[in-house]
């Protein structure tokens, strides 16, 4: 699949088929995340793949709107490891969540190439996710990612819901 086609087709999915996701497809999307760039190549991301119904239920309960999590055949939780010597962007934001976000998006694009769909949930209670998956200190959930074959495809192109180029691009000055 052409990269631009994958970018255009990458929409947030809200309903999945019950059809199981083959393990090789799960491995392929995590392999794409693994290749992401990161600050000093620290690769601070970790991914926990959840297929078990009971564990999925616990993760869904950690999300106020967790129905989609409970219903997805696979849920991948992306974590970021705190850096011992944290590098910041301009002194105001740590890079490790950013690195992990980049990896998550590579995973989401790879899912499209595999004929799958994803969503990205940040509306969760961190403590409940940590408890469900027994996550040690210094490791933070960044994204709960429901994954599966889409029950319906979102026909509209994302550009229909996006700002126009003129609204977001400027040359030589910041005009807004
Ligand atoms: C960082 C990030 C966090 C998001 N968090 C949530 C969320 O907590 N719940 C949710 O339903 N969707 C969430 N989304 C999905 C966005 O709502 C969605 O990407 C946006 O509405 C654009 O729709 P599209 O992805 O179909 O183009 C998130 C997306 C991103 C990139």
CATH superfamily: NADH Oxidase
Helicity range of the residues? 25-40%
Strand content: 15-25%
CATH architecture: 3-Layer(aba) Sandwich
Strand order of the largest sheet: 1-2-6-5
Round the Cα radius of gyration to an integer and report it: 17 Å
Instruction: Count every beta strand, where a strand is a DSSP E run of 2 or more residues.
Output: 6
Bound molecules: flavin mononucleotide
Total separate domains? 1
**End-to-end Cα distance:** 37 Å
Largest sheet: 4 strands, antiparallel
- Total count of helical runs of at least 4 residues: 7
Element string (H = helix, E = strand): HHEHHEEEHEHEH
What is the 3D shape?
A: globular
Description:
This protein is α+β, with helices and mostly antiparallel strands. It has one domain (3-168): NADH Oxidase. Helices cover 36% and strands 17% of the residues. The strands form two sheets. The protein has a four-stranded antiparallel beta sheet with strand order 1-2-6-5. The chain has a two-stranded antiparallel ribbon with strand order 3-4. Helix 3 (53-61) packs antiparallel against helix 6 (126-133). The model has no long low-confidence stretch (mean pLDDT 94). Flavin mononucleotide is lined by residues 11-12, 119-123, 158.
Name a few traits of the molecule.
176 residues; 6 strands; binds flavin mononucleotide; NADH Oxidase; alpha+beta
What is the element layout, followed by pairings?
Elements (H helix, E strand, L loop, with lengths): L2 H7 L13 H12 L10 E6 L2 H9 L5 H5 L2 E8 L6 E2 L3 E2 H19 L3 E2 L7 H8 L5 E10 L16 H4 L8
Antiparallel strand pairs: 1-2, 2-6, 3-4, 5-6
Helix pairs in contact: 1-5, 2-5, 3-6
